[in-house]
Amino acid sequence: MVQTIEELHHIQYSIYGDKRWLYNVRNDRMIVSKQPLENYLGEINHSSNPLYDFYHSPYKRGTMTNFHILRIILDSSKIDFFHKIVLFLINRYSMITMLTLSILYLPRFAEYLQQSTEQFSLSQFSAGELIMIYLAVVGLVLPLHEYAHFSVYYKYFKPPKVTFGFSIRYFSMPVFFIKVPFYKLLSDKKKNELILAGIKCQVAIWFFLSVIHMIYPSHFVSGLLLVNLGLIVTNLLPFLKLDGYWYLSNLLKVDDYMTYFKNMFSKKAAPRIDILILGILNYILIALSIWGIACDIITFFI
Q1: Is 280 helix (H, G, I), strand (E, B) or coil?
Q2: What is the C-alpha to C-alpha distance for residues 244 and 175, in angstroms, rounded to an integer?
Q3: CB 3.0 to 4.6 Å from 125: which of 129, 201, 249, 288, for a disulfide?
Q4: At what angle do helices 188-215 and 219-235 cross, to 10 degrees?
Q5: What is the 3-state secondary structure (H, E, C) of 79-121?
Q6: TM spans, by residue (predicted)?
C-alpha cells in the first residue's frame, strides 16, 4: 500500500520506487524528482529554497477546455464517514445485487414509459421539473459519482486534504471534480477499481431510483432515472476524458492516451496505430461537442 506523508505546508509527499512525488494542494501543482527533497520542506519560504516557486506559484484555473469555476479544500477527516458508506455500496456483492434488481425492474419501467409516451416528451416537462432534474444531476448525481472515485483513492492513500469543485469541460460540459493527484502510484488493478467506482456509484443510484419509481412512479423520478442511465452509458465512452477514457488508457498501458497521441507527433513517443485512431476520434467528438453547444446558443438567441 502506498502512503503519503503527513501534509506539511499544504504539500503532500510520497516516495515511490526511486522517485519523490510532491503535490501542492494550494496551487494544484505536482512535481516528481529522483532527488531527495525532504530537507527542502522545512524552510519553504526562503527564496533560495529550490521548492520556493513550486510552493508560492499561483493557482491556475485549469485550461480553456477544462476551466475550474469553483474549488473547495477541506480536511478529509470531515467527510471520513461518507467514504465508508460509498465503499460499502460499490463493493462487489452490493453491486451484483443492485444491478440485478435494477435490470429486473427495467421491463416494468419501459412499460411505464410506453404508456406515457406523450406525457414524457421533453416539451411536456414543466420548467420547474427540468430545473429540478438538472439540479439533482449537477448537485447530487455527479458529485456522488466523483466522490466514489475519491473513496477508493482515500482507501489507499488517506490524504489529509480533499480538493473538489466544479469545472466546464470543452465549453459545454458541467463537471464536478475531486483531485486524486497520486493516482499514478496505484497498481493497474487499483487504478481500474478507482476508475470504475464512479459508474458503480451510479448503478447504486439507478437501484435507489428504481425503488422510488416502483413505489411512486412520478414524472420527475422517471426523468431523473433516464438521465442517470444516460450518464452511465456516456461515462463508459472511451473519449472526452470520461471514465471509459481512463479505463482504456490503463488497458493500453499509458497514463493518458491523448498525451501519448500528442507526443507521437513531437517524436517523444513511439508510433501506435491504435492510439492514432483513438486520438483522431477523440478530437472529432470534442469538435462535435463544441459545435453542439454553439448551435444551442445561436438557436437560443435567434
Answers
A1: helix
A2: 15
A3: 129
A4: 160
A5: HHHHHHHHHHHCCHHHHHHHHHHHHHHHHHHHHHHHHCCCCCC
A6: 85-106, 127-144, 164-182, 194-216, 222-240, 275-301
